[in-house]
Amino acid sequence: MQIADRIAATQGKTIFYFSLETSKDELTEKNLSRLSFELANESSRNPQTARSINNGYWLDHKPEFKLVMKAINTYSKYYSLIHIFDGTLNRPTANTIYKKMKAYRRKHPDIKPVVIVDYLQILKPIDDKDTDKEKVTKSIAAFKSIASELEIRVIVISSFNRSSYQSPVAMESFKESGEIEYYADTLLGLQYRAIHDDVDNTRDNIREAMQKEPRDIELVVLKNRNGRSNTNINFEYYPKYNDFIPLDD
């Protein structure tokens, strides 16, 4: 969602966000929380978590009220560009998303939106009889059609194999990675920086990394057809406020 916000706010592009695990209201609260954190850094006021925004704590406290209202005002400038489809109750298939975007492009031929799918493995299968591998293969193929036929950029979030949780991120980390690797133009992986620094880390190391505030996160470019691969970007991640901040180093 932070990527979606940045694209909408800085480039004015339309976003279609298909969320299969988190409701639209929850995502909106997380966005406002992140904005309150970023605005608080500028004004030295107390940022609000998504939970405090949900329970209305800020309504009865003047400094927090002003901060949240400022976040709402900031979000309102590009909110209309972000279309969040709540798939938590009625999961779409990749074909459903393809048909929806094809209809949109037919109606708005001059607009090329960005599609974000969160996430691949919990999409409804195109055919209920498909195996897990077939499900991923058909879904990824549908997303490739959205990208190539409809000229729409597609960002698909994927889970990792459970066996890869304590290993440095690699192409093999992705579930059914063969199809994901083949179709994707760019393949990115997130990991705790401690995994990169110490490949022999244990569960205790992972637990310690998860408890840090902020958390040290590394984004690894595993594949990039149109640019450099095998590079990395380091972030500080503030989980309370859903904010990734890139580091200069």
TrEMBL record:
InterPro entries to which the protein is assigned, alphabetical: DNA_helicase_DnaB-like_C, P-loop_NTPase
Originating species: Lactobacillus helveticus CIRM-BIA 953
Statement: the UniProt record of this protein carries the keyword Coiled coil: no
Keywords: ATP-binding, Helicase, Hydrolase, Nucleotide-binding
GO molecular function: ATP binding; DNA helicase activity; hydrolase activity
Enzyme Commission designation: 3.6.1.-
Transmembrane residue ranges: none
Enzyme class label: hydrolase
Highest rank taxon of the organism: Bacteria
GO cellular component: cytosol
Protein name: Replicative DNA helicase
Pfam short name (any one): DnaB_C
Example GO BP: DNA replication
Residue ranges constituting the SF4 helicase domain according to the UniProt record: 1-249
UniProt entry tagged with the keyword Hydrolase: yes
